[in-house]
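Dig into what follows:
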Amino acid sequence: MYVSADLIWLAVALPLAGFLLNGALAIWRPTSKTAVSVIGPAVLLGAFAVVLLVFRSYALSGIATPVLVRLWSWVPAGSLQVDLSFVVDRLSLVMLLVVTGVGSLIHLFSVGYMKEDPGYARYFAYLNLFIVFMLVLVLGASFPVLFIGWEGVGLCSYLLIGFWFGEKANADAGKKAFLVNRIGDFGFLVAMFLLWTSVGSLDFARVAELAPTQLAAGGTMVTLITLFLFLGCAGKSAQIPLYVWLPDAMAGPTPVSALIHAATMVTAGVYLVARTNFLFAMAPLSSTVVAGVGAATALFAATIGLRQYDIKKVLAYSTVSQLGYMFLAVGTGAYVAGIFHLVTHAFFKALLFLGAGSVIHSMHHAYHATHSHEDAQDMRNMGGLRRHMPWTFALMLIATLAIAGIPPFSGFFSKDEILAAAFARGAELPLFRLFWLFGVAAAALTAFYMARLMAMTFFTSPSRCPTDRPNTCSSAWPSSSPSADWSPAGGSRWRARSCRRGWPRPRRGSGRSCSTSTTWTSSTRPRSSARFAGSPRRCSGRTSTRGSSTGVVSRDRPAWPARWAGSVLGSRRGRWGSTSPCSSPARSASSSS
């Protein structure tokens, strides 16, 4: 079946229709979640099908030149003629497959992840619009059309990062992303002004044709143009010094983090350098700057990821580091290797974020059931989850092996190409050997902090004692910590479990116990339970018999669900004495015996 490239506009029109429909539902029928659940993913799957058919036809036709799809005249202003045109070539088709393919999977995941959110329709409207602008960005046949998508993804990132804007931290994170990206956008605009002044055109094909004759290779003008372009890329793709917004982008829902970090916004800068490779090839100084900043960012972000405890922050700094790899590739001149790593990174990073979302979702449910206020994203509160979430563990393990560069997984081949290109370029310019060394060090650190993430989440015992459950604050606190099971095959299926079948308990005196004196006050008890209303009761003069806690504590304990009380508290009586930290020594001795 032959599908003309002229129909590529359908890939943009379908998500746009989804945005309009979901936006209308968000305004007039915000409770129509079934319709939203069908429309949101369906339009992305339809766009992916269109891209697949166009890709197949383009590949079978043997066309080597780009296909220009002109929609209408946009800016007819004297000598400045800008058409709203799309370009279909190998680079844009690869990006289209990544954006629509990975984006479709993230939309499907979002149906279950966000179903209970009151802003469900608004969420899918923003998500569809995000894809629309990203598709315009990669299909634009000129700098102004690409800039529409460039600004659009910045707007949608602001809307999605600050989606839960009721909390000030989330709103501030959205504003931070928006403002930092404006710095990069300034550089993009200046580059377009300089291009128009020097070449007289803003179409990619026309600029590629005129640049060798209008601009001197290695000259000041082409160097300025490419450096300002790279400023825009550094803002959008979170490179030094404009990387600061990306870790805070974790304030949004986890599927949004997967979409931003894997398939859309942050890859835009790498795509722009690859699209304008004819300009960077004429500016060796700018290419060296791109490679140097990329190598430094790869190493710098990897060192930050070593000491993060928020599971999403670890993956965020990992994204910054991997983007540095991509810029190292395109700065070296290995454009194919850079796009290759962009594709492989899109898949394993999306898998890692969605797996992290599954873990966070489970932890939230477990803490909600026990009226705990622990941080569900802190890896120090996790541990031993591989037995309860085997699917999540297996899939995240595959993605971890890929990002760590372990053969035969995809990350090994893309990283190997980048490092080989940087090392080979070092024969001509020794500075690239230093960049290669940075890349090797970043690869080693990536393997380390990803292994640390997997160990803290799925293998080890929790390393922190909850501060809002006085009856579990002992050397054996994990023995009453709940976990939950999420089964991808059966949807959201929760089975609350006690730690008797969950987290392995730490040894007494292992350093992971709450062996310090503890006084529970109104500021440390759970606020969600009515049982804690009023002033706390004290156990005057009595001491806890568990572990080595000798402080005065409160008798109050969270209102645990009845179905958990028997197994959890029963296991504690059988192994660690009385469940009450205020029990008398005689009663504790009889219980433990």
